Amino acid sequence: MPEIKVLTEDVVSKIAAGEVIERPASVLKELIENSLDAGASRIEIEIKKAGHGLIRVHDDGRGMDREDLRLALGRHATSKLNTFEDIYSLATFGFRGEALYSIFAVSRLKIISFRAGADSGYAIEGEGGRVIAELPAPPVKGTTIEAADLFFNTPARAKFMKSDASERAQLIKTVEEAALANLGVSFRLVIDGSEILSLPTLPGGLWENLKNRAAFIFGKSTYGGMARVEGKTTGMAVYGFSSRPDALCATRVNQHFFVNRRPVSSALLRQALYRGYGHMLTGKHPACAIFVELDPGSFDANIHPQKRDVKFSGENEIFKTLSNTIYEELLSKQTAGVNMTAPAGEVKFGSPDLPAYREAASPSPAPVSAEAPGLFDAPVAAAALSPAPADWRSRELKYLGQLAKSYLLFECEAGLLVVDQHAAQERVLFEKYLEEFSKGAIKVQPLLVPLETELSRSQM
Ligand SMILES: Nc1ncnc2c1ncn2[C@@H]1O[C@H](COP(=O)(O)OP(=O)(O)OP(=O)(O)O)[C@@H](O)[C@H]1O
Ligand SMILES: [Mg+2]
Fold first, then answer.
1. Does residue 213's CB lie within 6 angstroms of at least one atom of ligand 1?
2. How much of the chain, in percent, has pLDDT values that exceed 90?
3. Which residues have their alpha-adjacent CB atom under 5 A from ion ligand 2?
4. How far is the centre of ligand 1, averaged over its atoms, from the C-alpha of 426 (Å)?
5. Which residues of 431-456 are buried (b: 16+ CB within 10 A; e: fewer)?
6. What percent of the chain has pLDDT over 70?
7. What is the pLDDT of residues 257-294, one digit of tens each?
8. pLDDT tens digit string along 435-450?
């Protein structure tokens, strides 16, 4: 008897679904992208129990007739691809023809759809990949898809879900990203009966609309610290918003990258963003909504079943364009306005009470890559970075001014001394608290007035 068996269709569908549908937010992403591909101008979403109870997406797109509705549930059934080569000239989010099939395999699914010109609408429902009922429905424009009881038949997968709060945050982020990238479409999101997002379409151009959505999604304080970025090279355009160097965030949660409006997780784009900031990051992170527009033939979205990974044919060019755009738009503009007229004065720098700092301050500064598009790309870089003498702390220093709201410049015997003001302040505080700690007396004082912190919807 052979050891090898061909798996049953039921097992195959669950395995396939496992790749595409990792969590409730994967279902929502696929359904929203289907609505966008169907030309919807309005997408309404209702979620119950962090997506495990219900994910319902209603759109006013072109809909499906009876025959297409039946076909849509099958594996590798798509209206978006004819030949394999079409993948490299795609104008749609979907192309694999397996999202509905996968969702159907692990939920109780109901689809109601109407295509203009058909006699009536049509509904189909079933569970675990098995159709239970097909019936006519009212001729209401568009499509409504309800996926209920997600993972009801794959309890092992259900066990891997994160907390409801985390799944909910991911669902909100999915809608936020779709809304940032599709400004001509209105979005409404209701979770457990409460309206979380309502983003209508507004008159005005791209920037006006992007600004409105970004301000709503990032929140007033984060958005208030962002600046517009825009750059272009042959075959590539970059635009969006990114934090000013003086308004960076503590975490990376507010970073969104898009390639041809497709939300992506790309290490290349993130690294290019960080390289653009160079030494200005000081351990913090920019918030951003960065849109990269490329020829569809110059990247491949067929890397992972969830279509969030992309492979670029010209990685170096993309890296350079994005990092240079960030650098030029944010940093050079900021340094151009540097106030160098601060009153110069003689100061004694350094304190004998800071032994740890003295040790940490190596006489040979770490080499800075000549390629880094940092603040010191200009020819003065070599002089500024030449090793300071070991005893520079005891020398007389002449304060010259502040650069880019972050660096203090001093003239010293060896040339120019640059002090990272924020890092220096952190060091001073660190020493202070270390001393208090070693004496066993960290001072704690409750706030008289509560401190307000703004969180985005997905962080709540
Ligand atoms: N909301 C919708 N409105 C109109 N047609 C839809 C809608 N959702 C799905 N369809 C149709 O059903 C087909 C199958 O959808 P499905 O999401 O499974 O595959 P896809 O979008 O083609 O590719 P992918 O698996 O990459 O998402 C689509 O190609 C489309 O023709
Ligand atoms: Mg799809």
1. no
2. 53
3. 34, 94, 99
4. 53
5. beeeeeeeeeeeeeeeeeeeeeeeeb
6. 86
7. 999 999 999 999 999 999 999 888 888 999 999 999 99
8. 888 888 777 788 888 8
- Cα 11 to averaged position of ligand 1 atoms, centre (Å): 22
Tokens representing residue 125 in the block? 């429902």
Domain assignment present for 443: no
For 383-404, the pLDDT digits (tens) are 334 444 445 565 688 889 998 8
Asked if 305 and 75 touch (Cβ cutoff 8 Å), the reply is no
Q: With respect to residue 457, please indicate whether it lies within any of the assigned structural domains.
A: no
* Ranges of the chain whose pLDDT falls below 50: 336-390
- Is the Cβ atom of 349 under 6 angstroms away from ligand 1? no
CATH of residue 163's domain is 3.30.565.10
Shortest-distance Cα residue to atom 4 of ligand 1: 63
Domain limits for position 41 = 1-199
- Return the CATH number at 215: 3.30.230.10
Measured distance CA(112)–CA(121) in Å, rounded = 7
- Widest Cα–Cα separation across the chain: 91
Q: Which one of 37, 90, 141 would you pick to mutate in the ligand 1 pocket, going by the greatest count of ligand atoms within 8 A of its CB?
A: 37
Is the Cα dihedral 20, 25, 30, 33 positive or negative? negative
**Domain match, 59 and 112 both:** yes
Last residue of a domain, one of 168, 199, 230: 199
